[in-house]
Amino acid sequence: MRFLIVGAGAIGGYFGGRLVQKGEDVTFLVRNAKQIQLEADGLFVKSVHGDFQTSVRTISNREEAEIFDCIIIAVKAYHLTQVMNDIKPYVGEHTLILPLLNGYDQFSILQKRFGLEHVLGGLCYIETTLDSIGTIVQSSSFHSIVFGEWAGGESERTRLLLSHLDHAGFTVTLSSDIQREVWQKYIFVASLSGITTLMDSSVGPILTSPKARAIYEQLLQEIVSLAQNAGMPVGPEMSASTMQKMLSVLPEFTSSMHRDLHKQLPVEADHLHGALLAMAVPGQGAYPVLETVYARLKVYESVNDMR
């Protein structure tokens, strides 16, 4: 199976690098500057699961290449429009597209562009970032991909993909109910990024402060309630499971959005919190904490001229 990994950053570089280590046929689609750096230095990962450095195969935008069997999209959601143009030459009749982006809207966007039959549901759980010299730093015990047919169930093609993703040094799960899994991740990421950026803090101090924890719990409940009112595959138990996950992480754990904010990088405010508020059914529920989070992030974008 020929893999194209879109992006060799913190997420794409990590999972793609692990697949290279396993011996899979992997190519990275990257920008010219990144291509030069990777060709010179290779891909370097510092991980709690073991450091490694490897040479990788790369192509840049519009560079000729054969059709790929699976295209894994591992970039920030605000790059999706450009990415769809970039991958179009490499999508064939049987190509699978596996997005590992935060949010929910990206699936319908990709399906409209490439067709329902090409787009799988997918997500990942990992804490990883790039340091000042471009090394991928992976610092959590969890490093997993979950994927499946968007319509549910399993298929021959997803079982084949599982066989190639499995035993690559990270956890992979084939889900028969991927839309529910996507929403579980969306709720976790939106509440985590919302509270860490609002409080400008990692998880530990937020959960040990009674008032801050109460605000987090309200934010979490608002997101779950909003999704339920909008008819999404979200059950009331998702509040409890998300809280359990928050309580299980290390005190220094934070969101990638919080890290990006401190680096004065763009954030996924519109794709996470803004997209949620756009789903709100008029007259059904109030979402004051979620609206406060979104307003805080839009102020950040305005102050840093990120339009």
Automatic annotation (TrEMBL):
Catalytic activity: (R)-pantoate + NADP(+) = 2-dehydropantoate + NADPH + H(+)
InterPro entries hit by this protein: 6-PGluconate_DH-like_C_sf, 6PGD_dom2, ApbA, KPA_reductase, KPR-Related, KPR_N, NAD(P)-bd_dom_sf
Its EC number(s): 1.1.1.169
UniProt keyword NADP present: yes
Residue ranges constituting the Ketopantoate reductase N-terminal domain according to the UniProt record: 4-151
Record domain Ketopantoate reductase C-terminal: where: 177-301
Keywords attached to this entry: NADP, Oxidoreductase, Pantothenate biosynthesis
Family statement drawn from the similarity comment of this UniProt entry: Belongs to the ketopantoate reductase family.
Family annotation (PANTHER family): 2-DEHYDROPANTOATE 2-REDUCTASE, PROBABLE 2-DEHYDROPANTOATE 2-REDUCTASE
Protein name per UniProt: 2-dehydropantoate 2-reductase
